[in-house]
Every structure is written in C-alpha cells, then in structure tokens.
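Minutes, project check-in
Item: structure for the 199-residue chain
Input as provided by the requester:
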Amino acid sequence: MGWLVGAGLVDFTIRSKPIVQATRLRYQQKVISSGYDARKEAEEFIRKKKDKKFFKLKVIDDEIGKGVFAKREFANGEFLLEYQGELVSYAEGKRRMNDYPLSLGSYIFLFGFQDKKLWIDATFSKQMAKYVNDAAPKTKENNSIMKVLEIDGNPHLALFASRKIFKGEEIRYDYGERSLSWRKKCAHRSPLKAYYHDF
C-alpha cells in the first residue's frame, strides 16, 4: 500500500539531447529525441491497458517474492508502467484491506486526487506494476516515482523513471510510508543479488 498526493500535473516532456538506448533484440538502436513526451506515452499505454514490453517479472526470494526488472536502459523521466486496477472509494478500499485474505497479498494503493482519498485495487490486475517493490527515499535502489495522471476525467497512477535505469536493474520506488518493517530487513540483502538480473 502506498500514499500519493496528487497536487497537479507537472510537465513530463523531456528536453535533453537524444539518448540512445539498447533493446533486448541484439542491441537494436532506439533514439528518444528531444521531442519525446513521457505523458503522451503514458496515456497511450494506459488507454490500451497494456504494459511496455521491456520488463521482466522475476522471483527474488521467498521473503520478498516477485520484482520487476528492466530489459533495457530507461532515461530519467521516461514512462515505465501504470499501476493498473479498479478505482474505489476510501471506504471500499478500507473494507477490502480488512476482508482480503493474506494469501492474496497487498496490492491496494491509497492516494489523493481532487481533495479526495481514493484507492487503486490492483489485486486482480494482470499488469506488472503491482509487483514493483519499495525503496527508501534517497537511496541508490530508488529509481522511479509514482505520479497521478488525470486522463478523461479519471485518475491513473503511472510510474516514471526518476534517474537513468540500467538494463537488468530492479524497478523500485518509495511507497511513501516511513515505518515499513521490511526496509530494515532489506538493508541486509546483497545488492547484486537483489537489484540486478542478467538477461
């Protein structure tokens, strides 16, 4: 579960020199020009209800479970994934948090939108963003940020790269809660084992 305050949209247009990125298929070149618009790309994938194909879901270990890994490099500011699920009211989200069995996992995301508290319930979503793991703020593992996008009058949660992400690196963002018990446990993990995967 995470908390995110939607305080309006920022300009997601990347205005930098072209960045060359390698894809999975024998490092075929893809150039993101200075006209790349991350918000526009996010809207396209959100409307299609599909993930980008440049991610791999992998089991990390029995305690952590699954994680999402990059199959190519991503530029700072680039759209990654939508936290896709059912939009529900605050009261309904609280009820589901209490009623869902532990075996389902916790994939209900609390956020603020237009002075309201709402939830995205991704419990039954087939998209990958619900498996993106937490990272404490201002750590090297934290490489993305969740933002609220209003599309056709409805809020959507979209994950964007907050720095350059390397091929094989685990995608992680700050869930927005300070007292998460696993942050202490994760401090003892081996970075190479936990955060990178060879493809």
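Outcome recorded: Helices lie at 38-48, 90-99, 181-186, 191-195.
No further action items on this chain.
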